[in-house]
Each structure stands twice: as C-alpha cells, then as structure tokens.
Amino acid sequence: MMKLKNLGILLVALTVLVSSCNNSGNKKAKDKKEVSIFYANWAESIAFTYLAKVALEANAYDVELTNLANGLIYGELSKDDSKGDVNLDAWLPNTHKAYWADYGDNLEILGESFSEGTSGLVVPAYVTINSIEELNANKDKFESKIIGVGGGAGIHGITLKAIDAYKLDFEQMTSSGPTMVASLEKAIKNKEWIVVTGWKPHFTWAENDLKYLEDPKGIYPKDACTIISRKGFAKDKPEAANFFRNFNLEEAQLYELMALIVEKGEEAGATEWYKTNKVLVDSWMK
C-alpha cells in the first residue's frame, strides 16, 4: 500500500515538473527576442525596414525580413498563425483603405513611421502645366501615358479613379517602382515631358526638381505611413512593440537614409545612418 502511495506521489511530482517545464518553455519562446518584418518593394518601405532591422539587431534581437506584395502583407499578418509580426509602411487611412476593410479587424496599429504621406501625378518642374485638368490638352507631349507602378499598389487603383474622374485620354502603364524612377530620370536627362504616379516620401524628390500636378477634385489623399502588427504582438513582445510605437522619421531624415541606401545598399546604408543617429534611434526602445 505504501508503495502505491509513493508511486502516486511520484506521478504527481512528475506531472508538476513537466507542466512547469512546459510553461517555462512557452514563456521562453514568448519572451525570445525575435521580430519578423514584412515589407513591400517600395523605397520608403525598404528604408524603414532596414533601419528597424539594424537597430533591433544592435539591441540583441534576431530579425527576419520577408518581401511581399501589399495585399499579401495584410493577408498574412491577419492570420491567427501569422509568421510575421509587423509592417512599417501601411498607407492609412486612405490609400490602403480597401486592405484595411478586408483585414483590419485582425490587425493592430502601433504608430507612424512617417506622418505626412502624399501621392499624386508628378511631373518634372520644367513641364509647363500645373494641373491634372491640363493633361488632355497636352496628351501628345506625354504620349498619352502615365507611368505607374505595380497593380497591387494603392496608388495604382487611385490613379484609375483619377483617369475616370478627369476623363483623361491616358493609359496607366504598369511597371515597378525602380522602373518608374528610371523612366522619370531618363526623361529628365533628355528634358522630355513625362507624368508618373508619385508619392512622398520617396528619394527621387531629393534628387530631382519635381512637382505634383494640382488635383482640384481631391482624388489623391493624404496618409500616414502606418506601422501595423498582427494581433497580440504588443502583448507578446512589449519592448519591440514600444520601439515601433516610437519609430518616426521626418522628411529630411528619411531622404538622408534613402540616399545612403541607394549609395551603399540596404544593410550598409541603414547601418551607417543608424550609427550616426544612434542616440535618437535607441531612444525609441525606451
């Protein structure tokens, strides 16, 4: 009888020990300093993301980056078993309104990486028209083309609305961000007329003399480059969440960061900017 009693005590002790180990393991996994960032292939998104990466890694985090299209970023982050944690370049509340309507209930807003995002139709400053309403009268000079970016970008859909609202006899040419910039710079070099879908923040504003065409119908909105996360991220990783809540760049700072990335590459450029601005960036951890 005593042996059975001792066996029972031993089994209870083992159960408690296993439970304690499991809880300890779960807590350790929960507290592990890892962050997974999803980002789109846009200049400002790359800049935000790599600055966050080098800053977090300098503070003992392991950081994983995954490049995805905008729609996939929202969809993946909203999953219960999401492999990602955050995205630093959600254009809200307007440009990505449709994505937020589909996925926003399963996402959280942490902060703003850049607070004054704008978009519109952009031309070199030497182009003598100043309004979208003047495009049709000069369509031959533009070859009836608006040089756009990928179909998954919010600005692509807004530009289709602008073409309809202004009854433009233009076609939006789908390309990539780098292709759009290359087309713009080639036209500027040859003093040709060109109109592109553009936005701020973007490094091309710092490198070229550009202007938005006036938008009297108000088709193109103002937004913040918003930092969003999966549900529960702030609870799981409060220190990292606090970093993202405080993360915010002014226009001049962002263009300086972008220029370094263009010159030296993503990791090296972001690392150099971080080292120069270490006191500021590390303060976001507090």
From TrEMBL:
It is found in: Cell membrane. GO terms for cellular component: ATP-binding cassette (ABC) transporter complex. The keyword Cell membrane applies. The keyword Nucleotidyltransferase does not apply. PROSITE patterns: PROKAR_LIPOPROTEIN (PS51257). Keywords: Cell membrane, Membrane, Signal, Transport. Residues 33-275 form the ABC-type glycine betaine transport system substrate-binding domain. GO terms for molecular function: amine transmembrane transporter activity; carnitine transmembrane transporter activity. Its main location: membrane. Residues 1-24 form the signal peptide. One of its GO terms (biological process) is choline transport. It comes from the Bacteria. PANTHER family: GLYCINE BETAINE/PROLINE BETAINE TRANSPORT SYSTEM PERMEASE PROTEIN PROW, GLYCINE BETAINE_PROLINE BETAINE TRANSPORT SYSTEM PERMEASE PROTEIN PROW. This is Glycine/betaine ABC transporter. It comes from Labilibaculum antarcticum.
